[in-house]
Amino acid sequence: MKKLLLVFLTLTMLVGCSQNKTENKPVAKDPAPQVKESGESSSKDFEKHEATLYDKFDTVIRYSLYTKTEKEFNQYSKFINDEFDRLHKLYSTYENFDGVDNAKTINDNAGVKPVKVDKDLFDLIKLSVGDYAKYHKKTNIAFGSVTDLWKEYRDNALEKKIIKIPSQDVLKEKNLHTSIDNIVLDEKNSTVFLKDKDSRLDLGATAKGFATEKIAQELEKRGLKSGIISAGGNVRTIGTPIIKGKDSWVVAIQNPNLNEEPDKQYVAILKIPGSTSMVTSGDYQRFYVYNNKKYHHIIDPDTLNPANHFKSVTIVTKDSGLADFLSTTVFVMNYDEGRKLVDSLDGVEAFWVFENNDIKYTDGLKDIIELEN
């Protein structure tokens, strides 16, 4: 799953997938959100402070907080940095870390034994399994055997210039090991077990949103009144911006054709009142080209190939974890299916950029959206 800041009349942030073309290696000039001052604080008691965090969840994380003192900001900042670091290690399916039984540990022990895990990892897996059944069976965290194969080919293309695609026969064989029923959860003992030795977890569609929401909620509990976090394709606002004369955050949806249209940074801006999440999934992150066709990282479980309905899908709702899950789900559905799903959910809105660059969005965005012509 899962943002350049533009200067409008208030604090503005761009939401969209990071443009990194290699995984696990954030580049120095990532067009992720950069928060800039564009208005004075509405209260002399508060000042705006900003920070950037690298190498967590394979993206650039930026946040802006309004606090009364720099000391208060530093306390919040330490918590944000420590939590993103801890949750990054916990949710990783590709790296082992000393003293941490994480998602990769579960994969390493598939078909061998249950793994006792931290409550935050257990809760993420449990929620993802529940959302799979509750919303639509398109986002499956047990789909790792297929997505790992595509990652291998993508890494070879981007890093070694060996440009190929996996055969459909091999993909079908890998797909035999993707049943979500392979995940066995023991809540009493806080263990997770993959019954099939060839099954693999892939938390890419859920982990970053879940982590961002968890951190934002804790900041609110600790007393933060106003702030915004952008973690790759995930933007989470807290309260309202303490900027004179402004009562909403202005968040821009990134132009998915930014590489070809560098002068057109965004396709729309949304004025977001209060604590809300926006998450974008798109085909312009983590991709390579083979025979003039783009192969990106969001795989359709029906075709076992990259989904090709849209260039990007943005979900707007309160919870960043749900927004992350739904942005991937809706991205791999055709428009009629995705629109039906979104319209059935209270408090959920969506914005689609089609392959032909057409744009559609749900009725709930009409009063807060401004399209870029």
Automatic annotation (TrEMBL):
<dbReference type="InterPro" id="IPR024932">
    <property type="entry name" value="ApbE"/>
</dbReference>
<feature type="binding site">
    <location>
        <position position="328"/>
    </location>
    <ligand>
        <name>Mg(2+)</name>
    </ligand>
</feature>
<dbReference type="InterPro" id="IPR003374">
    <property type="entry name" value="ApbE-like_sf"/>
</dbReference>
<feature type="binding site">
    <location>
        <position position="205"/>
    </location>
    <ligand>
        <name>Mg(2+)</name>
    </ligand>
</feature>
<keyword id="KW-0285">Flavoprotein</keyword>
<dbReference type="GO" id="GO:0046872">
    <property type="term" value="F:metal ion binding"/>
</dbReference>
<keyword id="KW-0808">Transferase</keyword>
<keyword id="KW-0479">Metal-binding</keyword>
<comment type="function">
    <text>Flavin transferase that catalyzes the transfer of the FMN moiety of FAD and its covalent binding to the hydroxyl group of a threonine residue in a target flavoprotein.</text>
</comment>
<feature type="compositionally biased region" description="Basic and acidic residues">
    <location>
        <begin position="37"/>
        <end position="46"/>
    </location>
</feature>
<keyword id="KW-0274">FAD</keyword>
<keyword id="KW-0449">Lipoprotein</keyword>
<protein>
    <recommendedName>
        <fullName>FAD:protein FMN transferase</fullName>
        <ecNumber>2.7.1.180</ecNumber>
    </recommendedName>
</protein>
<dbReference type="Pfam" id="PF02424">
    <property type="entry name" value="ApbE"/>
</dbReference>
<keyword id="KW-0472">Membrane</keyword>
<dbReference type="GO" id="GO:0005886">
    <property type="term" value="C:plasma membrane"/>
</dbReference>
<keyword id="KW-1003">Cell membrane</keyword>
<feature type="binding site">
    <location>
        <position position="324"/>
    </location>
    <ligand>
        <name>Mg(2+)</name>
    </ligand>
</feature>
<keyword id="KW-0997">Cell inner membrane</keyword>
<dbReference type="GO" id="GO:0016740">
    <property type="term" value="F:transferase activity"/>
</dbReference>
<keyword id="KW-0460">Magnesium</keyword>
<feature type="region of interest" description="Disordered">
    <location>
        <begin position="22"/>
        <end position="46"/>
    </location>
</feature>
<comment type="similarity">
    <text>Belongs to the ApbE family.</text>
</comment>
